[in-house]
Structures are given as C-alpha cells and as structure tokens.
Design a protein that fits this description.
- The protein is an alpha/beta fold.
- The protein folds into two domains: 18-23 and 273-408, Beta Barrel (Lyase, Ornithine Decarboxylase, Chain A, domain 1), CATH 2.40.37; 29-272, Alpha-Beta Barrel (TIM Barrel), CATH 3.20.20.10.
- It is 32% helix and 23% strand.
- The protein is built from 13 helices and 18 strands.
- It has helices at 11-21, 30-41, 61-69, 79-87, 104-113, 122-131, 169-178, 197-210, 239-256, 269-272, 305-309, 399-410, 412-420, and strands at residues 25-29, 49-54, 73-76, 95-98, 116-119, 136-142, 164-165, 182-187, 219-221, 262-265, 276-287, 292-296, 315-317, 326-332, 341-349, 356-359, 380-384, 390-394.
- Strands 1, 11, 12, 13, 14, 15, 16, 17 and 18 form a nine-stranded mixed sheet that branches. An eight-stranded parallel β-barrel has the order 2-3-4-5-6-8-9-10, surrounded by six helices.
- Helix 8 packs parallel to helix 9 (239-256).
- The radius of gyration is 24 Å and the shape is globular.
C-alpha cells in the first residue's frame, strides 16, 4: 500500500495495530507529542512564560507522564484531575486547579494538597477566604470576549457561566483583603479551538489591565484554546506571529510594572489532538436509497465531538487501494441513536465489510469524553513510542468483562449466583 500523505503515520503501521489489537483503538504518537511541547517552549525565549497542559484534553496517565517529562505543569478542572496528577508525581505547585461550581469538599481537598486554586465566583471566593484566612489563591475573570470552534465551547462571552465579572474585581479584592488572603494570580479562558487569534491578544490586554489593582500579583494565566486544523484546507494557527505580537505587549507590561510577574498558557488540544488516531472497522455497507452508509464498530460513545459539536474529522480507509473507485458515504456508528454519525458525505475508495478506517486528529477530547453508552466497552489505547515500539496503555475489556464490572458494582452478580446455587 502506498503511503497516504493525509495521515501522520504510515497506513501499514496503523493496519498492523488494528489487526493485532482489534478495534476500536486509539493510537497516539509519543514523538509528535514531545515535538509539539518543545515547539511551544521555544516561543517565548526571553520572557517568564510557563506552560500548563490542559488535562481534560487527554488524561491517559502515560500521556501525562510524557508531557510532564517535557517540563509542563498541569491545568486541571476537577479534584479528580488534581489527584491524578499528584499520584503521577507532579508537585502541587505545578498544578493549577480552576474550579467550576466547586463543592466544599473539593475546596478542602485542594487546599489540603496545596495546589494553586483558581476561583471563578464571588461566593466561592468568600467561602475560601472564610475557611482559609491568610492563605492565597488565584481568581478567574470573565473577559467578555467571545470565541471558540462552537458555541458550546465559547467560555469568555458576556453570558458565560465562567469567571468573575470585570466590574466585580474590586469586590473580590475587598473580600480577600478582609481575610488577609492574597490574590496571587488572575486568569481567563475565552474558548476552545479559537477561531480568531486576535481575540487571544485582546484577552491578554484585558487581563493585563485587570491586574492593576492586584497588589500581591505573582502571575497572569491567559488560558488555552490554541486551535488545530481539522480539514486539510484549513490554515494552521500561526504560532510564531502570535508569539511575536504577544511578546511585545508582555515585555511592555513588565517594563511598566516594577515587580516579578510570570505568565502561563494552557494548551491541550494543540499538543495532543493531531497526535491521536481512532481506528475502527467497517461492519456494514448499507444502501438506503439516497444515502450509502458505512457502519462501524465505534460511535459517539467513543468520539463525541461530531455529534456534540458537529465537528469534522478526516476519515481514511487504510485497507482499500487509494486509487480505487471513489464512493460517497455517511459513516455511521454502532450506537442506537440517529445522531450517531462520525462523518457525512465522505468520498472514500469503495469500501467493504472488514476494511479498517482511521479517524484523524482524535488525540484531544476523544477518550476523555468517551462513555459506555449502550453498555459498550471503551476503546483500547496504544502508544507508538519515541523509539518506534507499540505499547498498550489501556486494554479493551471484553463484553463479558464489561457486564461483570457493572454487576460487581451492584452486587447483583453474587445474588444471582446464590439464587441459582
């Protein structure tokens, strides 16, 4: 088979993985993850910029360890993510925990662990200050800047549930001051998969100006959202141009403020998205009159983005001859929902049951958003190591194991055994 330039991995290698490990299987490329981490670290060579990987993009422990090895800290959004990073050896000062409708128990756990707590509401800030007077924290603000690849991931707009309103920052400072709590950081995040790079620069400007009244400021966190191209004709985000424009403003800020302030960015998708591929097998070819369907052994339970965000992922048939007769297919999942479509009107070589498909750019928000809807097992995960080896980093459970796990949690398996003995 000839190498397909639309895939970052030789199709023959992907085919070998699919045949050995079965499908559905997520495949990740360690060398690409490391390379992209290193690209980011080179962007601001003469500025105090650090990088926090957004764990929600892909929380496989092996992936986290790879990124940690590149010198990244971690952006977490749940207490469970905090504990995961801690258990993998990350120091608490390298963990940034942005709360969202946090419970008291989560707040107490985070405070006990000593991670940096980023607070996004006045109510939670008051609760924190009353519980931990004399401590320190960060605050998340709502910058009123709208962006993101879909309305459901636009987090900085005027009506967003996230962050403290700009006009309430003085009140946040007052509340903290009453309890001797130092606000050490300020943070915002405007969206995931940002469409207009100028909006990140505008957000930077809002954060720099909003930091003026924070006398204890030690860092400013500009969030994440750096996009990746999902279609072959999309223009990649110009990192170098962005870094050039941002650097000028950050340097001017440091020169105008005689205090040591550091900066953070929180990439997730940009690091791991292109480094992941979901392998699936065609089980059914069905002509429904006006539409021709390819039915696969995966679905939106494993890759939710197309159903949730109408997101596009390129699909490549890695079994068929690349020069074969082309057909237009709807690519359907095996979940009992009409909306379980992985791709619409895709031109592929004529495909047949038993063929393997590779779904591109699924390293981010694939497995972390997966579920066992219809009680189907989660995919396996395989890492192509930097040395070129294939390594299982999560095994797929059999149907029997999946059902037994459910019964084990309920105790019904033991009860049933007792009744029939």
């Amino acid at each position: 088979m000839q190498h397909n330039p639309s895939l970052p991995v030789d199709p023959d290698r992907l085919l070998a993985i699919a045949q050995k490990w079965g499908t559905p299987t997520y495949v990740y490329m360690e060398s690409m993850i490391r390379e992209r981490c290193q690209m980011l670290k080179r962007l601001f060579p003469d500025l105090p910029v650090s990088w926090l990987y957004a764990v929600k993009a892909n929380d496989n422990p092996h992936i986290i360890r790879i990124i940690s090895g590149e010198g990244f800290g971690f952006d977490t959004v749940s207490y469970e993510e905090v504990l995961l990073c801690l258990k993998l050896g990350t120091g608490p000062k390298q963990i940034f925990y942005t709360e969202n409708n946090m419970t008291d128990a989560e707040m107490q756990g985070a405070a006990k662990e000593g991670v940096t707590l980023n607070i996004g509401s006045l109510g939670r800030l008051r609760a924190f200050c009353e519980a931990y007077p004399g401590s320190e924290c960060s605050i998340r603000i709502k910058p009123d800047i709208s962006d993101g690849h879909h309305a459901k991931v636009d987090t900085g707009n005027q009506d967003s549930k996230f962050g403290i309103r700009l006009d309430l920052i003085p009140e946040a400072v007052r509340v903290a001051g009453e309890h001797g709590v130092r606000i050490r950081g300020i943070h915002a995040h405007i969206g995931s998969g940002i469409q207009e790079p100028e909006n990140i620069l505008a957000e930077i400007e809002v954060l720099l100006k909003s930091s003026a009244g924070l006398d204890d400021l030690a860092f400013i966190n500009f969030g994440g959202g750096i996009p990746i191209p999902y279609r072959h004709d999309e223009t990649p985000f110009d990192l170098d141009r962005f870094a050039h424009l941002a650097s000028k403003r950050l340097k001017a800020f440091l020169e105008a403020n005689n205090r040591p302030v550091s900066f953070f960015f929180e990439p997730g998708r940009w690091i791991v998205g292109p480094a992941g591929i979901l392998l699936t097998q065609v089980n059914t070819v069905k002509d429904q009159g006006r539409k021709l369907f390819l039915g696969t052994d995966t679905g939106f339970n494993h890759l939710l983005r197309p159903a949730l965000y109408e997101a596009y992922h390129e699909v490549v048939n890695i079994s068929a001859d690349a020069h074969g007769t082309s057909q237009t297919y709807h690519i359907a999942g095996n979940i009992c929902e009409s909306g379980d479509m992985l791709g619409l009107d895709r031109a592929l070589p004529e495909s047949k049951p038993g063929d393997y498909l590779a779904i591109r750019d699924t390293g981010a928000y694939g497995m972390t958003m997966a579920s066992q809807y219809n009680r189907r097992a989660l995919p396996a995960e395989v890492l192509i190591t930097a040395e070129g080896y294939h390594k299982t980093i999560r095994s797929r459970k059999t149907p029997a194991e999946t059902v037994n796990d459910l019964l084990k949690e309920t105790g019904l398996a033991a009860a049933q055994k007792s009744e029939t003995s």
